Amino acid sequence: GAVTMPLTGWLADRVGSRNLFIGAVTGFTIASMLCGIAVTLEEMVAFRILQGICAAFIGPLSQTILMDINPPEKGPRAMALWGMGIMVAPIFGPMIGGWLTESYDWRWCFYINLPIGIPTLAILWWLLPSRPTTGRRLDLFGFAFLALGLASLQLMLDRGQQEDWLQSWEIVIEMGVVIAALWVFAIHNATAKSPLFSRQLFANRNFVAGLAFSVVIGLMMFGIFALLPPMLQNIYGYPVYDTGVLLAPRGVGILIAMVVATRLAGVVDLRILIGTGFAITAGSMAMMTGWSMEMGREPIILAGFIQGLGMGLTFMPINAMAFATLPIQMRTDGASLLYLMRSLGGSLGISLTTTALTRGIQTSHEDLAGHVTSSTFSTIDPATADRWGQVGEAAMSAMNLEVTRQAAMIAYLSDFKLMMIVVIAFLPLILFLKAPPKGAAPPPPVGE
């Protein structure tokens, strides 16, 4: 998906946004059905690749089309409604997926797309307007190096922890390919006569800051989603469905905050909303660093709701600022780049948090185990446990499990602190945002 996403603007110009959108939704629906009926790992991988390719076009095109069919005065409201779906779906998705898995079968996590996708196709075929096509030339050289860099980066992030990062020649080679390929693409895009992306995009201060903010939003969202479900299930013992329910207040907070942000957008400086949103998000993560293993559900629900408020306040203003001074013809390319940065930020967040978690558990386990002595464990002396036979082995196994559980808790809290620091570190980027000129009506905000 990340590799094909940069082609969205070129394909929309060549075949038309209507044809591309209908084709992408059709392909996504069919791929979902094929994933549900897959019987081998190879089939599942192939169908998931097809699903990812189709999904890569749906997001950017949906933004562009919504902006085209809505007048400027209704654009912010339309984009806010669209953004609610984009932000809330990853939160409610695990809850619905958990319920489907427990009540029916994991295949229904894919089949559920059919009763949604088929009516969507009918509506698109009936109502979706067409746009004129152009003979825009594809910068094949630039795309090839960008695709090579993105594919290597995704592979490196996915396999880094498994291969112990720079201790593996595979990861070292992949890192070298990433640096070389993206460097060649950057130089080519800056000097080519017809580059893949217009150089005006990267000369726009607000848009570049928006790209950076998209990375941190992806890192924050997907990093948290990678941490919380296993934490709630393994540390606190909640089943899959209850875990989804405990994550739902975050979605409620996002919905409320996005409605508030839309109402305040016309009277409050968007940079203030962005700063407030990130400050609230950092505060919620500070609350999470104080969690304990004996607490109830209330702190989880409260921190999630507050975090949703912060995330919801940042989403619409960031995209509004990113697109406020861009020419209309660059919207599709701009939207695909924002999507790409959010996707890469999500991959980076998952890789960063899982690596920090794994290494944190190892370090904390070693520290805690060093304090397990006869003076701290009165039931049995760890040094002489082998003399007690099976009873001693059972006692030592139980002790090790508890030490591992405590070490995991410490590692999770350290990860929350790390993400809080990352959010705070990105706050100064607000100073690079430039407010739209007064009296000029900026284009409608565009979502991630």
Helical residue percent? over 70%
Total beta-strand segments? 0
Rounded radius of gyration (Å):
24 Å
Mean pLDDT: 84
Note the total helix count.
Answer: 15
- The helix/strand class is mainly alpha
Question: What is the CA-CA span between the terminal residues?
Answer: 15 Å
State which percent range the strand residues make up. Answer: under 5%
Order of helices and strands: HHHHHHHHHHHHHHH
Q: Which word captures the global form?
A: globular
Features:
single chain, 0% strand, mainly alpha, 448 residues, disordered C terminus
Description of the structure:
With 448 residues, the chain is mainly alpha-helical. The longest helix has 39 residues, at 331-369. It has helices spanning 8-15, 17-37, 41-69, 75-103, 108-111, 114-127, 140-159, 169-191, 199-203, 205-234, 240-264, 270-288, 298-323, 331-369, 390-426. It is globular and about 75 Å long. 73% of the residues lie in helices and 0% in strands. Residues 439-448 have low confidence and may be disordered. Helix 7 (140-159) packs antiparallel against helix 8 (169-191) and helix 10 runs antiparallel to helix 15 (390-426).
Record the SSE blueprint.
Layout: H1 8-15, H2 17-37, H3 41-69, H4 75-103, H5 108-111, H6 114-127, H7 140-159, H8 169-191, H9 199-203, H10 205-234, H11 240-264, H12 270-288, H13 298-323, H14 331-369, H15 390-426
Helix pairs in contact: 1-2, 2-3, 2-6, 3-14, 4-11, 4-13, 7-8, 10-11, 10-13, 10-14, 10-15, 11-13, 12-13, 12-15, 14-15
Brief synopsis:
The protein is 73% helix and 0% strand. The chain has helices spanning 8-15, 17-37, 41-69, 75-103, 108-111, 114-127, 140-159, 169-191, 199-203, 205-234, 240-264, 270-288, 298-323, 331-369, 390-426.
